[in-house]
Write a structure and sequence with these properties.
The protein has eleven helices and no strands. The protein has 311 residues and is mostly helical. Helix 2 packs across helix 9, helix 3 crosses helix 7 and helix 5 runs antiparallel to helix 10.
């Protein structure tokens, strides 16, 4: 069992980093989607609607997913699962909405910079205080150093992206969304404990998130705040929802093995790699961004060693 755990946790870290790369890709897609349809709330609703449709199809075809959904509903009715177990979708909806609002103005790298600052601080709090049913993992000095290195890394990314005073409002939106993403990780892990599989927690996330975003889109249209230009024709603009499904599915599967803090730190590393890739594609290479990515992975390594020592 010991040898199994020795290779399992590094594998989960690698998976989390790859999911982080996918998160940066999702930000790029959803930002472009918002520009195409002329509305951030509508773009977010489209992304969540696509993911919800996919999850409904999977649930209809997979018996274990239907069983997990019944377990979750029964746990909620019986009071075994807390009411906040259904709020993970609202947290995820805020992130997708923030993508649509901020990425067109900030770009992927700077948006991810602000988002991961909130995510790191939120995940550290969740683990340290045991919020949302997460196992308590106190802050060690090595985990603290790892966090500081990661925060310094995202600061370098921000400098490389040319952050200005005028963009601070959009960065604040990203930071708040990142904090809520950390809460979502803890909530999803709790729901998965009751479901005993990963599809139904994702379905609940997307159903709640879609309802929130659809309401926001309709309200924005009624108030004349946006002008929705219709559904896009480009097929790849619908992939943001698919990536979101993968994100929720994988994080629900690995959060208990890594802890919210280590999962978030690994996601940060992947998100910065994705940001670097998209900056290279757009011809805006920055040595500060490259240094930030390297430093983020150093922070992940230090925090991982700190977590192992704490066991």
């Amino acid at each position: 069992m010991t040898s199994e755990r020795a290779w399992l946790k590094p594998l989960l870290l690698v998976i989390a980093v790859l999911v982080g790369v996918g998160s940066a890709t999702q930000s790029r897609i959803n930002g472009t989607l918002a520009e195409t349809v002329g509305s951030g709330p509508h773009a977010a609703a489209i992304a969540f609607g696509t993911g919800l449709a996919l999850l409904l199809l999977v649930t209809a075809c997979v018996k274990s997913a239907r069983t997990g959904l019944r377990r979750t509903i029964a746990a909620a009715r019986g009071g075994e699962m807390p009411w906040w177990g259904f709020l993970g979708g609202a947290c995820g909806a805020s992130f997708v909405l923030a993508q649509g609002l901020s990425v067109p103005f900030l770009g992927v790298a700077v948006f991810m910079t602000s988002m991961v600052v909130g995510q790191l601080l939120g995940s550290l709090a969740v683990d340290h205080f045991g919020w949302l049913g997460a196992p308590v993992q106190r802050i060690s000095w090595m985990r603290g150093i790892g966090t500081l290195l990661a925060l310094l890394a995202v600061g370098l990314v921000g400098l490389g992206g040319g952050v200005t005073l005028g963009s601070t409002g959009f960065m604040a939106i990203g930071a708040v969304a990142g904090f809520l993403v950390a809460l979502q990780l803890g909530i999803t892990g709790t729901v998965r404990q009751h479901a005993r599989e990963s599809v139904s927690p994702a379905l609940i996330n997307f159903a709640v998130g879609f309802a929130v975003l659809l309401g926001a889109a309709l309200l924005a249209s009624l108030l004349g705040l946006v002008e929705f230009s219709g559904l896009p024709r480009e097929w790849w603009l619908y992939l943001g929802g698919v990536i979101g499904v993968i994100y929720i599915f994988v994080t629900a599967s690995v959060v208990r093995g890594l802890g919210v803090f280590m999962l978030s730190l690994s996601l940060v590393g992947g998100q910065l790699v994705g940001s670097l890739f998209f900056d290279l594609l757009s011809g805006h290479f920055s040595w500060l961004l490259l240094c930030g990515v390297v430093l983020a992975f150093v922070g992940i390594l230090v925090s991982h060693l700190g977590a192992r020592r704490g066991r």
